[in-house]
Design a protein that fits this description.
Number of domains of chain B: 2
CATH class of the largest domain in chain B: Mainly Alpha
Largest interface: A-B, 64 and 86 residues
Strand order of the largest sheet of chain B: 1-2-3-11
Chains: A alpha/beta (198), B alpha+beta (400), C mainly alpha (334)
Helix content of chain B: 40-55%
Oligomer: heterotrimer
Distance between the termini of chain B: 29 Å
Order of helices and strands of chain C: HHHHHHHHHHHH
Number of strands of chain B: 11
Structural class of chain C: mainly alpha
Helix content of chain C: 55-70%
Largest sheet of chain B: 4 strands, antiparallel
Shape of chain C: globular
Radius of gyration of chain C: 20 Å
Number of helices of chain B: 16
CATH topology of the largest domain in chain B: Cytochrome-c3 Hydrogenase, chain B
Shape of chain B: globular
CATH architecture of the largest domain in chain B: Orthogonal Bundle
Number of helices of chain C: 12
Structural class of chain B: alpha+beta
Distance between the termini of chain C: 43 Å
Chain lengths: 198, 400, 334
Amino acid sequence: MTASPSETAPAPLEELATALAQAVGGSAELAHGTAKIRVNRDAWVEAARTARDDFGLVFFSWLSAVDWSNQVEVGDPLAQPVEERYEVVAALADISSGLIVLLSTDLAKDDPKVQSLVGVYAGANWHEREAHEMFGIEFVGHPQLIKLYLPDGFVGYPLRKSFPLLTREVKPWPGKVDVEGMPGQEDEDEPSTENPEA
Amino acid sequence: MTTRMSADQDLVRHLSEVSVSVELQTPDMTLNIGPQHPSTHGVLRLVATVDGERAFNVQPVIGYMHRGYEKLAEVRNYPQITTLVNRIDWVSGYANEVPFIVAAERLLGVEVPERAQFIRLILTEMARIASHLVFNASYPLELGAATPLFFALRERERVLDLLESVTGGRFHPNFNRIGGVKPAQGAGSATRKVIQDLPKGFLAETRAAMDKVLATVDELEALVAGNEIILARTKGVGLLPPEIAAAYGMSGPNLRASGVGFDLRKVSDYLPYGQFEFRVPTGANGDCWDRWWVRLEETRQSASIIQQAIDAIPAGPLLAKVPKIIKIPKGEIYVRAENPKGEMGYYLVSDGGLGPYRLKIRSASFSNISILPWILEGTLIPDIIAIMGSLDFVLGDVDR
Amino acid sequence: MNFWLELAIKLLVAAGIIPVVGMVIGFAEMKLSAKMQSRMGPYFAGGRWGWAQLIADGVKFFQKEDLIPADADRPVFKWAPALVLASTVAILVPIPLGPQVVGRNLDLGIFYALAVSSLSTIGVLMAGWSSANKYSLIGGLRAAGQLIAYELPLVLAVVGVVILAGTMSLNGIVEAQASWFSERGWQFGLPFVVVQFVGFGIFMIATLAELSRIPFDMPIAESELVMGYLTEYSGFRFLFFFLAEFANMFSLSAIAATLFLGGYWVPGLSETQLNFVGPIVLFAKIGLLVFAMIWFRWTFPRFREDQLQSIAWKWLIPLSLGNILATGLLKVVV
């Protein structure tokens, strides 16, 4: 029971994932102990409802998004180009067995709209507000889609890859400051878990 | 979504209108609780519409401590993120690092030595004790009893001193490394490379400190649990049914107080909890009293786990062999852990670079306080404080 | 003695006793609470004991800026602390420190003392309303409800004592306790707490509520309302409230000691001796009661407003009425 690598998920999770994927008409991916079910944008709410009612995934863990872009203002760009999209990910869990699945759907960049999950899980409220203000995704049917973290007059969507970080304008990534060793300990063969050279 | 209390309120209003011949028009008052307030655990603002002593439509306003960790993580390499991440829930600093490190290690495919895992477990449980002691002592303070705080904080200092002796930091240990925990090096000499393990006497001292923690927990229980005023203020206040809790994503002791016996330490293998015997305390009603009591019991169980772990800790290296520059191959993983505040998880999307492509931090307190508008509907102002306090959140955890 | 000289001495004592008592009891609170919480308390001011801590605090408060909120009702805001302090001083008038050492031996002693002590309610309400602050308003209204609700048990608890003593004059009550068994020739008297323990309990609880001390400090409720009706007060106005709280503890404990514990009287001393020893005895008894109040403050949490009110109306008032009934019956029968 160590943190050992596992390319395939344990059996109960695999069963749940394949069954759920079949029920909602999506595809299941299992890797590193994480099960992800991709569904179509139009089947988003139905998939969540099925997961809650038929599969007992009553615990709403979180909802967020990933911005897949080939041009990035901060950090490293992707090694291989991908299809540009927003991927909305929701994590739903079972509170008796501890199984958790990630439900995800892809949104086109020019039309980032998806149905809100508030009708299925009440807890989606705040998570969707956060995803909205960070990515600019519109959740249709959300009762109060206003800003959660950011001040009222904030312009822009911070977690989009096109949104720059001011500090990294001044000190680009990865920079010299990120790679200093400890003073007086610049040994070569120490097991390096300190800041590595770029 | 109807409110729980709406039936009672309608009845009360109807009765009051019927019996009084002259209708008293009392306008509602908008009361701002926070962001500077003795009891909001940080900069949380509640905008409540108050009618006399009853509050309706309580809207939390958060974001005063938003530091943009998810964006910052995209321009950090993996060891640097550990320093960021233990500042999320600063009361239990060590526990924040563990799920992130486990996620990175699983994606990398590194096997962590047993000794390192045991040390992680011991330190996580010590962080849990620190967090719960603060809660169990400061909650009576919000109700007005000032004394338990001093007794508990004294013991907590012992635990924090031990944490400091190992990691160098009381609240922000930054002790995890990908592949294990940090081996102390050098010992002040630049020429002799001495890899040090845990400080001498740490294990024995910790074991002794756990006995004192258990004694303090008994003292706290005697001081608080027998007090009728505290029972009157907390029993039946802030009832949380388990279905609502699950729908909102409440986790940790808050969920367990509502009767759901779900503990990630029992079902998940991010740390070797399976080797130890411990109970998962659950509450009966899901009121404020249960939430206080569950955390008290958990402190006891944590102390017992630490003692078992110290007795069983194996010898061995502290850090696996990892390359000098750590680049985690392409992949996605979600790892969650049972933090003192609830479930903390990291969704790590890696593209083979020095740092993650996207790091989503699922923090426990964010979901825990999303329930505030529901649970505070129609409660009295003193009960707002009591209920908010019992949810045990930290603003750094809410706002990231 | 010349009337004017006596008056001057009494005024000086009354004016001086408030700050002195306030500081002594405040210091006792700091040190006692520290001992209960495994701390040291004031340590540096004035040498190892820290006895000068409150003197230093007094000086500090005096030299602070006089802040009045812009929207506050200025005259009301300024006079509120004065009213609270005035009622505290006025209670001290009929309290006997010895058989002849008394401000004024009023025939209606206890009636006057209780009437004047309720003036502080107006002061609190004035403070809460005039501060132009929602938290102060909530605190002030809670205070109004609480203080008025607990006036009744306070007064009713005393009626039992008055029935037993047969007089409302505080000197007379002490005499009655001292000479309870005198027809049998026994030296020691009967402190009324022995037979009136219910009344004593009710009186002490009501006193805690009148002082707005934990467990009844909803009007201040530090963890909810910042400082309740005191939120906007700073500098020497806050000092008045602060001193008034401790001095009020002293005054009301003095009444309780006089009514229930026998006041200045100890058995076995002649009257002239009591004139000198009496104050010390009374202060010792007051000290016991004040210690109990401080102890409760640091042990218990606070009641919620509705629980507070239901204790007053549903428990204390019926109990005190029952106490009066029982006392009257026993007085007639026995």
